[in-house]
């Protein structure tokens, strides 16, 4: 049957599919819009399966925070152009919302189905590369920060002496500044206690070899290596780094100041940093 350009446009506006695909779907469905949508969906899902092998190195990071949970998710695609598309953005928002609502801890068939529907519209391969969930206690506060047009995302958690302290705007302001810091410097570890023992051993071996190569006696080299390790740990541990908003103090000292300012205590206890395309 013949279909009008107006009907084709109407279907395209509703589904986001191409004009020719919309026209063919309407013809196959004999002008029935609901049936035409089903035709497009079936065709799109078939296309999605064919595109599953394509590399997805672009994308965005999405976050969602509720009273007791926070999620950060990386959704990838083939091109930066699609990453900025409204359908892609809406899919990312729907994905993090579903993770929170369903209490998900891993990628499920339901999430993959949402992605396939977006592939059908956008005509590019897409994938939920990863996501992480933070639990939030009453005496904790979590803030998020999206940087570089969605290419970097951060969640920051602080623990306070009470729920009242955690709810204060000054505490959330510190947490947000800490998120800016993480986005800028991507700390390797949270604090000294979280540094992997093998990492410390490997780094000490490197510093020892470098020091001995300079002709330093072993007893002297030991002291030099200790000093180098102390400086190195401070550089890679979040709480010991110079604070992005004031390089005269560390992140921990900034947290202490934030707590003192509101008559309580504030401690940075966790963070998650996602960057689109990074190796995991």
From TrEMBL:
It is found in: Cytoplasm. Its main location: cytoplasm. The keyword Protein biosynthesis applies. GO terms for molecular function: translation elongation factor activity. Pfam families: EF_TS. InterPro entries: EF-Ts_dimer_sf, Transl_elong_EFTs/EF1B, Transl_elong_EFTs/EF1B_dimer, Transl_elong_Ts_CS, UBA-like_sf. It comes from the Bacteria. GO terms for cellular component: cytoplasm. Residues 70-278 form the Translation elongation factor EFTs/EF1B dimerisation domain. Gene3D superfamilies: 1.10.286.20, DNA helicase RuvA subunit, C-terminal domain, Elongation factor Ts, dimerisation domain. Keywords: Cytoplasm, Elongation factor, Protein biosynthesis. Transmembrane segments: none annotated. PROSITE patterns: EF_TS_1, EF_TS_2. Residues 79-82 are annotated as: Involved in Mg(2+) ion dislocation from EF-Tu. Belongs to the EF-Ts family. PANTHER family: ELONGATION FACTOR TS (PTHR11741), ELONGATION FACTOR TS, MITOCHONDRIAL (PTHR11741:SF0). NCBIfam families: tsf. Associates with the EF-Tu.GDP complex and induces the exchange of GDP to GTP. It remains bound to the aminoacyl-tRNA.EF-Tu.GTP complex up to the GTP hydrolysis stage on the ribosome. This is Elongation factor Ts. The gene is tsf.
